């Protein structure tokens, strides 16, 4: 269940080779297979990437929707942080964080725009109309090239069902999630959209955190502007963040948010369903207060499942309502690593 150095080295070597190839590529080098996903910030295509020497690789090509005509060197602005954070701010290739291989500016092809899978609103924002001639043409936009992995954690959990905990796989997924979140925390990166849909599963069954389109960087003391935390995924947002936003605080302390998000992920991985039904709306009677989880009840529910000692208690510690009572992300990572080592 511990990190596999050989698999990590292989991934690193593949990333280095692909990065070199992408640096000499252009849009015509990408043959689109399908749309992997689309959201407020971009559309991700599954592509076959080829260059002159006959090399072929499968990559994810992300087309930015909110591109404002900036030059490729001017990406560190609101809602265009993804490339800057992944390529410049984070200092190394992490085994559980997506890696961006390169970027370029180009006009999307009509094949991309006319895809039946593309939502009409997305299609409209990729086109511009010449005022004089009325001719409709694609807008120039930004493309990121990312490593591609076959499944999301959501898909994998649906596929595995109750067998996710067999052979320590559930614990491994929890450890990988903690490694990714703790790495971001150490580098002051606030992801803002943590959820199983944004975690990929590699062919080697490693979890890879992806989709940094909403990410921002906290200051040196881990404070973030309140306006920067209004976006993202409210389902995974900690109670104190919801409460401080409701109180119209100008700055929020991002101290134990990742602990909460790890707890939410671990609960879905190990228990097999979302925790706190209806959260946060069902708890919004003034200040949001979530109840303490029942350790004994969860242990009874998992009595026939292979779950390491202490894992249920850790989930409960991560999902405590008050950040003061919640275990920190670094301590949680060390606890999971110790469990993994003991089970190896």
UniProtKB/TrEMBL annotation:
GO terms for biological process: regulation of autophagy. PROSITE patterns: PROTEIN_KINASE_ATP (PS00107), PROTEIN_KINASE_DOM (PS50011), PROTEIN_KINASE_ST (PS00108). GO terms for cellular component: cytoplasm. ATP binds at residue 62. Pfam families: Pkinase (PF00069). Coiled coil: none annotated. Keywords: ATP-binding, Kinase, Nucleotide-binding, Serine/threonine-protein kinase, Transferase. The keyword ATP-binding applies. One of its GO terms (molecular function) is ATP binding. Residues 30-337 form the Protein kinase domain. Belongs to the protein kinase superfamily. PANTHER family: SERINE/THREONINE-PROTEIN KINASE UNC-51-RELATED. This is Protein kinase domain-containing protein. It comes from Vannella robusta. The lineage of its organism: Eukaryota, Amoebozoa, Discosea, Flabellinia, Vannellidae.
């Amino acid at each position: 269940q511990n990190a596999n150095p050989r698999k990590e080295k292989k991934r690193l070597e593949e990333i280095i080779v692909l990065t070199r190839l992408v640096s000499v590529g252009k849009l015509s080098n990408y043959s689109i297979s399908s749309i992997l996903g689309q959201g407020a910030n971009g559309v991700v295509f599954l592509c076959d990437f080829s260059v002159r020497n006959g090399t072929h690789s499968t990559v994810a090509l992300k087309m930015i929707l909110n591109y404002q005509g900036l030059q490729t060197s001017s990406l560190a602005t609101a809602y265009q942080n993804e490339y800057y954070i992944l390529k410049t701010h984070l200092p190394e290739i992490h085994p559980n964080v997506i890696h961006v291989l390169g970027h370029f500016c180009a006009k999307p092809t009509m094949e991309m725009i006319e895809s039946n899978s593309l939502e009409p609103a997305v299609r409209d924002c990729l086109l511009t109309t010449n005022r004089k001639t009325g001719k409709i043409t694609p807008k120039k936009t930004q493309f990121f090239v990312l490593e591609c992995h076959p499944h999301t954690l959501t898909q994998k959990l649906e596929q595995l069902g109750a067998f996710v905990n067999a052979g320590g796989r559930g614990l491994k997924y929890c450890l990988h999630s903690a490694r990714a979140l703790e790495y971001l925390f150490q580098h002051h990166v606030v992801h803002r959209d943590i959820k199983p849909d944004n975690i990929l599963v590699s062919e080697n069954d490693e979890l890879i955190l992806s989709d940094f389109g909403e990410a921002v960087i906290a200051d040196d003391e881990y404070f973030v502007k309140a306006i920067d935390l209004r976006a993202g995924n409210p389902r995974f947002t900690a109670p104190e963040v919801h409460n401080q936003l409701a109180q119209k605080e100008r700055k929020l302390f991002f101290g134990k948010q990742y602990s909460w998000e790890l707890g939410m992920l671990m609960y879905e991985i190990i228990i097999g369903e979302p925790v706190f039904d209806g959260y946060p709306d069902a708890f919004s009677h003034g200040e949001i207060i979530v109840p303490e989880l029942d350790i004994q009840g969860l242990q009874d529910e998992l009595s026939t499942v292979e779950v390491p000692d202490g894992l249920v208690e850790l989930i409960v510690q991560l999902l405590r309502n008050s950040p003061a009572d919640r275990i920190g992300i670094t301590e949680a990572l060390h606890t999971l690593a110790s469990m993994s080592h003991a089970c190896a």
